Amino acid sequence: MRKRIAIIGGGIAGLAASVRLRDLLPEHTEIILYEQSGALGGKLRTGELGGRRVERGAESFLNSGSDGGESAAVALARRLGLGDALVHPAARPAALALGGRLAPIPGGTLVGVPGDLSALDGVALPASGADTDRGRPLLAPGEDVAVGALVRERYGDEVVDRLVDPMLGGVYAGRADRLSLRVTMPQLAATAETEHTLAGAVRAAQARSRRVPGRPVFAAVDGGMSRLVEAAAAAGGARVVLGMPVRELTRTTDGRWKLIFGPVPAPQTEIVDAVILAVPAGPAARLLGEAGVEALEYASVALAGLALPPGTELPDLSGFLVPPGEGTLVKAATFFTTKWPHLGAAGPVIVRVSLGRAGEEARLQLDDASLLAIARRELGELIGTPLPEPVESWVQRWGGGLPQYAPGHAERVARVRAGLPAGLALAGAAFDGVGIPVCVASGERAADDVSKFLEEIE
């Protein structure tokens, strides 16, 4: 009998799930992909700026997994025939903007948490003698804490405020004092269960990462992340339904699933055998009626793309991060044409500026022209030289775009998953973490679970 599967959510997690299902299930299986917006890809979106392809969302992904092999994103790119299109950033350092100067980011840290306090190069002054062996592991098995709470206790405030916060802010737009260690730094959480000092836990986590010498840390797709989206959509072969939010999800008397989607005045109905939910926490909670999912908060950010006149001089960096204590709306900048040499040197100089952190949504409530003016002015102040008027620019807003994982998030999600009926799986950043490899792996695990369920009911 022909099986039908609904994937609700057309971001990279949902797309990865569709590809895995297509690989696992019989050819005649019907996969239906629902995306309430008008386009697939979620936070992966490539645009044009100054005659170049420039990302309006995520610009790269980790090249390696925690086991030392290829990351899930690289493996998916190869599965989709994009292996030869993978490109890597130039070997340029990044910096921290501190008190009117750009200071090199100290090497050897784990998302800003150092394993060697002597290597901080004056960026932060650690607390003296706080990271001592107290005769027990830092964390009990399964215990979760805020990153900031652990690092402040062991290393002091400056290490958090000037190093860890901007590093986490660059990924999550959040603050170390509110983000879960177990979600944002799972390797460190694991080693903290056995190590008695934070420095020892960081070094142990780094040793476990099995990074291959000489392998670039990050990768991207030549031509833009939208190529990855398009290739995944083609390989998944799903029937795509755009602009039609799924509003209700209920179990039928025969154990299948009824979806009601589309506008309220003209609802449409679909009956399927299994469902993968790959949507943010709010829509997931509404469909599940599960209060534990809805508790997740989100941060809003905006990206400003600036195409500066050819020959504009910038520091010889890939970009820089800004600690929250500097008071700027700009939290990070990428010197895009310097960072990605495959773009070539001719043409405008491209800079991407990230604006806004968790809790700063009110500061983003300006029109595009005002945000661009702030981005250009603050960027010039941070690098120490005024910038010329851009020849072209845009603003991309991601309202409520980045999940803020409070301590205990992983345990809460595990409880939600344990209570789900068979044939219903969860995937995506709302549940398993941000980053393209994490979302790809999450979607693939959900597909594996659904595939096993369908085999059992044959």
TrEMBL record:
One of its GO terms (molecular function) is oxygen-dependent protoporphyrinogen oxidase activity. Residues 12-450 form the Amine oxidase domain. The keyword DNA-binding does not apply. This is Coproporphyrinogen III oxidase. Belongs to the protoporphyrinogen/coproporphyrinogen oxidase family. Coproporphyrinogen III oxidase subfamily. InterPro entries: Amino_oxidase (IPR002937), FAD/NAD-bd_sf (IPR036188), Protoporphyrinogen_oxidase (IPR004572), Zeta_carotene_desat/Oxidored (IPR050464). GO terms for cellular component: cytoplasm. It is an enzyme of class 1 (oxidoreductase). Pathway: Porphyrin-containing compound metabolism; protoheme biosynthesis.
